[in-house]
Amino acid sequence: MLRRVRQSLRQVLFLMARRPDLVCGAIVLSVLLILAVKFTCSRAKNVVAAARPPVRFFSAETPVVDLYLGQLDQVERLRGVAEVSLIFFYAPWCAHSMAARQEVQQVAKKLAKQVQFVAVNCWWSQGKCRKQNRLFQYPVIHLFYRRFGPIEYKGPFIAPYVESFVRKVITPLIYLPSRATLQDFLANHEPGVVGFFQFNSSPQPPGYITYLSSALQALKRDFRGVVRFGVVTNRQVAEAISVKEDETVYLHRRFNSSLIFPRQERNFTSEGICSWVFEHCETVLQWLQPPGTKSRLLEQELTKGPALLLFLSHNPLGSKPNPILQQVRHIAVRYHSCDNNYHSSLDRSGIPLSHSVCCQSVVLPGSSSSVCELCLSLSRPSSTSSSIPCSFPSVAQGGAPLQSYLKHCCLHRPPAPVSVHTATSVACCDFLSSYSPFGQYSACCRKLESQLNKSSSQEGSDSQSVPLAPPSSSVPLSSVPSQEGGSITGLRCQTNKTLRFYVLDVALNWPLALRLGAPRNGSASYHANWSFATIVNLKDEVHYVHHHNPATTLTESLEVFIRNFSAAYSPLQRHLVGEEDSAAGEGAAPPPARPLITELTTSSFLPSVMDLQKDVLLFYYTQWCGFCSALNHIIIQLARLLQGNSTITVARVNVARNDLPWEFMVDHVPSVLLFPRYRKHLSVKFPDDVPITLPNLLRFVLQHSSSARDAPGSAKPPSEAEGPGPNALLRAEFLALQGEVHALHRARERLSQQLAQLWRDNRRLTFDTRTLEAQNAELQRERQSLEEQHREKSRQLGEAVRRLQELADTSENLLNENMLLRVLLRALKDRTEVKEDEGSEVTAVVTATTCTLSCSMHLSATLQA
Q1: In the chain, what is the straight-line distance between the N-terminal and C-terminal CA atoms, in Å?
Q2: pLDDT exceeding 70 applies to what percent of the chain?
Q3: What are phi and psi for residue 513, nearest 5 degrees?
Q4: Which residue from 171, 175, 216, 218 is spatially nearest to 197, judged by alpha carbons?
Q5: CA pair distance 854, 850, nearest whole angstrom
Q6: Cβ neighbours of residue 330 closer than 8 Å, sequence gap 6 or more
Q7: Whole-Å CA distances, 686 to 47, 527, 619
Q8: Is residue 325 helix, strand or coil?
Q9: pTM above 0.90, yes or no
Q10: Rounded to an integer, what distance in angstroms lies between the CA atom of residue 674 and that of residue 687?
């Protein structure tokens, strides 16, 4: 093998030595190849520009440590220093990260002394955060409580929500030092978990850290922190909920009996406690937070059954619970309570309570006839309710809010007019800011009778200084037990249409509320007491909107709304969602007197279609239907033909954006229906097996419209009608249109013949073109063959010329040698003449030389020949 290689190298070197031009060509080609590769690689590097070095994402003034180089190792060091840390992972190009940056800065300025805020650029390719973490979206917020974490925040990136979540992580446990705080905790947090741990024996009782971790685990599951954890350290306070043993976890429930964590059956771990709480907790009012992107969260909840969606203004940082939310929670509790004798409830410690209403009348300042009645719903133990008289809080005891409310309710609300024989006229409204499950204020404005005006005016002068205090001579107008509205209590177990109660923040879900029927002017006017309620039944594809009656309280109105929905034959009207009329918008151009095609919406559908004076031809379409778009020109032509007839209206409705009553819906689009005048109940649908063309539509209209008939009750026969009637006009138009159609048919036939001839000519030309292309291809192949033969002959001739040139060079050399030999021969002959006596050796040399010379002369002669 080596020998063959060596021989090949020797041959190559020998050829290179003989042909130096080949060596130069090979060297030049090698250099060009190297330069091409070098320039190509350098150009590829220049196409991708180097990434710019990252810069600070947060400003230097904010208390946020910005690790814009992705230094993940610095995060661990900063976490070890602070008790609570917030890690904000961002991408500098992400718009969501930029929007959340302002919100995080606001939270950081408030909680900088309690929380360590760290921002990490997780997009920088050379940073450790990008190499070690795989984040699929930005931004991401992780919280760490000491060494516990990460607790990912999954809520909206709005400052109040983020701050509320961070505060719940800072204080995962609520300290309950007394029975009052324990009762408030169980009343305002549903569900509530209470842990009893005594700190007397040791600074940190065993199991306390596990209980603390379980509270943090609950925050990982629910960012809203609906399930709150409290801790009790006093045994007397723990006995209020029948807890006596140390290290006991108590789960408070309203409907079923409360539970204590079974330590014999489950492991006392944070995951075990958290799972046990979420498995057995009762939630009658659930918060919903659609993410605003493609998600099936709302669909998953609505498919479970009918749902009551309550949209209200929610402040996550509010110190007091929303009064409307408290009322709805109270309604939901009574709705889910299947005990029909639910006229008494239990207090926070399990003691039965009875409810009563105490009312006192207060003479308004500056008025001698207006009296405001203040009613307070009290909750007392059933054993002592009859003996304790009605009592009202004074100004020192917290009656100042009542005083301001009375001024707003009674002074700024004109009382209803009354007649002489009417004793009183009452207009009431709730004092919502003081609502709780155990008491409710309501104020009523009314006038006294004429004979009582003087006495009330005299007493009013004494009560102007303290309006809330009862007059010296006044007595409570009523002190009767309240009626608890038993019709709503336990309704869940009395009907098959069980409701689920959901709450949504209107500020985050305003488009959804608007789609469900919320008033359009509510986007800029909702306040703390603004609310919108609707019942959605996804199975029946209906929803109902709650309309609050100002003459009743919100609680009563919602109860009536729920009872009407649960009735066997519900009196509620289905809410239809449709597009707004174009004329309703500000600055819109006024509509024409009689449009060519009337565009109907949900609100204008019934008035237009059910107009008894007109035949209505209705075209059902959607914006995504391609067949509907193809028929638009036919509908426009039909509308132009019928434009002169005032008794026929051509209309259309977009059924994808406008809900219609069930009796007016169609099973497919496009569809055409005719509603004849005076006979709306005899509407006719255009046949599905007939193509929708202009002649067919005209025939359909003429056949089923009321224009060919007399109106009901008309005594004039058609012969006595003044002038040509609408039927004659339509007939004339139809005949003219029919002649045009025949002319178009004849023109179409002639055009078809011409197109057929052109098609035949085109086909013949196509065949000829294919034949010429085949011949051209054959000629091209012959041309290539001849070119190859020409190249081969040229090469052979070149080789023969080269050989002849070599022979010519060789013959020239031989001729030169022959000339030299002749000169030598003459010299030898001269010497032989002088020295004739030389020996035989010289003669032999001369003979050999002569032979050689003769041979060369012969060869040269041969070459010349």
Answers
A1: 49
A2: 72
A3: -65, -40
A4: 175
A5: 6
A6: 437, 555
A7: 64, 51, 10
A8: helix
A9: no
A10: 11
